[in-house]
Amino acid sequence: MIHSVLIFNKKCQPRLVKFYTPVDLPKQKLLLEQVYELISQRNTDFQSSFLVTPPSLLDTGNNTSNTNNNIDDDGAIQIIYKNYATLYFTFIVDEQESELAILDLIQTFVESLDRCFTEVNELDLIFNWQTLESILEEIIQGGMVIETDISKIVGSVDDLNKASETSANTLSSGISGALQAFAQGGFAQWATGQ
Amino acid sequence: MTSLYAPSADDVIQRLRPFGFFFEKSLKDLIRGIRSHNDTPEQLELFLEGQLSECRQEANSSNMEMKTNAILKLTYLEMYGYDMSWCNFHILEVMSSNKLQQKRVGYLAASQSFHKDADVLMLATNLLKKDLKYGGSNDVFKVGIALSGLSTIVTPELAKDIVDDLFLMLNSSKPYIRKKTVTALYKVFLEYPEALQSNFDNFTSKLEDPDKSVVSATISVVCELSKKNPAPFIKLSPLLYEILIDINDNWIIIRLLKLFTNLSKIEPKLKGRLLPKIVELMDSTNAASVLYESVNCIISGNMLDENDYDVAFQCLEILNRFCNSQDSNLRYISCVLFYKIGKINSNFISQYDELIMKLISDIDISIRLKAIELIEGIVSEDNLKTIVSTLVKQFVGDEVAIIETNRGTSKEIPIVISDNYKIKIVNVILNICGMDNYSNVDNFDWYNAVLYDLAIVSLDLNEDDLGTKIGNQLRNLMIRVPDMRHTTIVNIIKITSLDSVEVRLPTILESCIWSLGEYATYLENGDALIKLFIKKGLHMPHSTQDAVIIAVVKLFSSWCTRNSDQIDYIKDILEQMVDFLTQLNFSKSFEVQEMSIQMSEILKLTLEALEEQSDEIPLLLSDVLPSFFNTYELTPISLGTQKQLPKGIDFDIDLPFLSQEDLDNILDDQETLAEEDMDIYDSDRFSLVSDDKNYGHEASYEDGSSDESETDHFNDTYKDFDEEKYNEERKKETLSNPFYLDEPTGDGNHYKFSDILSTDNEQREKSLNAMEIIKVNDNSHGSQKINDKKKKKKKTKKVKVLADQTIVIPGVTEVDASSKNNKSQSLPNPISSKKISLRMHTKLEDFNFDEQNKNNSDEDQALEHLRSKFEEQDINNDNPNTSNEDEVIVIKKKKKKKKSKSKEDGTSKKKKKERKSKEGSLEATPQL
Hints:
Chain A is of the alpha+beta class. In chain A, 47% of the residues lie in helices and 18% in strands. Chain B starts with 6 loop residues before the first helix and ends with a helix.
């Protein structure tokens, strides 16, 4: 499963920190800093998207209670990242996720963002953190990938936003049909209206 | 809820609102604030603290909008490390809002902060149950939000309470809800596996859902569940196989391959059906990710036997292609798989040496890091030097990566070689050179030079482990390669006297110093080394001091016998040594203390003797001291030999080791040898000394007695009195020419000497047999005398390398050796990595799904156990008797299992068809 999604910029300022496995806040911060430290040493022009997790990073957490699993060398945690302009999109996953599939997923995520914001840049994501959260929520739920189809992802975010807005305006009455009507292309308006 | 803080303030806000006054900041304002206060961390922290206290007040407000806004900001601030669990009850309030917008904020906040707060989760249970029900038409989204939030906060209690509501949702008409429910159920099953047991069919029916997203989500969940506990999902294999054949969505195919990997690990029979299909998939697909996962599935799913050369090469060809691609990601992951294939059978990858050589010079260091782990699989005598020189060159670190930019020009980027990587290189070089007792090294001069280079490099790496390892290699060379000792010892001296080595790589010294002491006879100017060690010794770590103390005495003893004419100088050195050792008498380390006291006392005696007699070196110095160290040669002994020692050997302490007659003989001997010295010697002291010596024999008889060298020891002893005709000659040998003194002219003597020893062998064995303490097994080559071995080896190889000796004691099984051999054939495991706290132990892992047929599952386990045991023996194939015995048991068990299976067939009609096909396959496979 996916344990965590981290988005941060080249100055290690967090843009999104999402943990699907409970991790204490100080450790979250430490993890972010260490991942940043490792990634910033790399040259994305020619280096792969996979971080070789050094022991220092792995020691930040408690050692697992079931040590018998440790013998399996494929039980390792992988850190997979992609660099887009000023931002790093980092996924921390276990061995049940395919490395290449996660890279595709990051691409899907970014394309979905691009579709929502049209020409997405860091500034968009800074000021629309909640949008970032809701798009991610439609892709990953509790560490599992639930949707990989970009139009479906954007569609459900739009639907949800329409529903939220209407429920806010009309104070929750029967608005069944209206929802479906808003389903198409409503997102962009909502996003810019924020 | 009324606010705890000044209600009047709230009233004021309410009053001002209509006029357009907003006191609270929106999230946007907060973010703007963060950006404008971002100059220093202190400034930012100050600002955030201020914002937090505002949020705290706002969260207490009775105004729902304000509260929601505050919660949203707090959720955002958690990203900066500010805990928000204090406002969990406020979050709960926001969650229960009727407005969807507020509910969203509430659930988002809850998913981040509820997981450790059991109290608030108890309160949230009812709310969740309510939110999971369809009420109005808008509820699709409400339910969706609740499901998303639920997925990260499930606790065992909550799981139990909520599971029925979730199963209702599973039949929702909306695919959106179904896929979210399936995913939410994953966490519930982890905490409450009983739910999966009782609703297994209901849940797995979603694999056949008409909506692809739901199928995909279900496969993902089954895949994750099967990682934790694969057994219950084996029976889904036919259905999953059908999906694999029909589907054309790469994402789902990849998940299925992962799932089959998990299942195949515990059910080897799957291989028969799956492998052809996967191979077919590999031929037909164009997607790199599917190709990669297919190979991964074959390898990780244990579908590749060590003899499946065809499949292995098909996989390797794909990996080869990936490794040569421009995409660094493909190169990286292929390296990892290469390694795994190599682990199955290192012959698979041995022909890819060129590729691997290319990969260890890849522009991406992380790929090199993976590739150097492969080297062990391809190394041979022919390419060892090339590999090592390639690696050593990388230490220089002036490589550049040439990157083609968009405009067609290229730029150079220096490749940064991290210390981490250098440490790895040193380790790998040591490993590949030392493999199989140096079988790949044909030139030990070269290897000495490499070790020297590695030592120099390691000076800057600040990794203690490397020093120890290089030191061990040097010591090993000294012991195992007798012909090269002259070169090696020079190398060791060079390394020991490196500038500031005791500060920058102190761990290398222990083995080096030990070697210098042990092989002091190769050194001319031991006095210089003694002085060096005395100078530096006091500031060394305790473990090294240990080695220094003994080494200094050994050096001294050997140096004195060579320079016996410089009495005054000897005295001078001796005084310095006594002085040095006395200082160590008060060391904090117990070992150092004990050792230094022992040695300083002996040396004090020697000094006394030297002072009494000033024209010749005393017997204590010329004979007694060397006899401490030179009585027998050290040989490498295989790991675990000591463990095989029989415990509690009986022996008679009172029985004198030497009879009075023997003792007299020896004394006579000594007299004739020492000649005129005897007069000066106090006869009391002399007898005391020889008593000591005998006691030494007896002591070693007591504690070791299976050590090869100990038997030598016996041998010596026996010769001393049993074979008097050799006695004199032998004595002279030992006195004038210490046992292992390797002089150019000494070779002849050596051989003669070894002849004597080998004739002794039978004698010794007889006497030993008679004593019934130790029997040296003639069958094992390891237990032959070193000298015999030397003779044999000399004929075949120019430079001989002593192998580990194994000593076989009757009645003690030789388990260690066989398992060790196995290991050395395949690649060793990489350094097992500790996991981050992300991995949690869940109830599911230990949950037994077959509780009602407990006997059956027990039998399954027993079968599994036997199967693995049998396989193990099949590989070892060393003891036909025991494996035969096991075979009988296995067959018996299998029959039992079949019977119970057919019984089961009768009871559950539903699965009859499936079972039948399974049974068919069972019958098709021959009896293991």
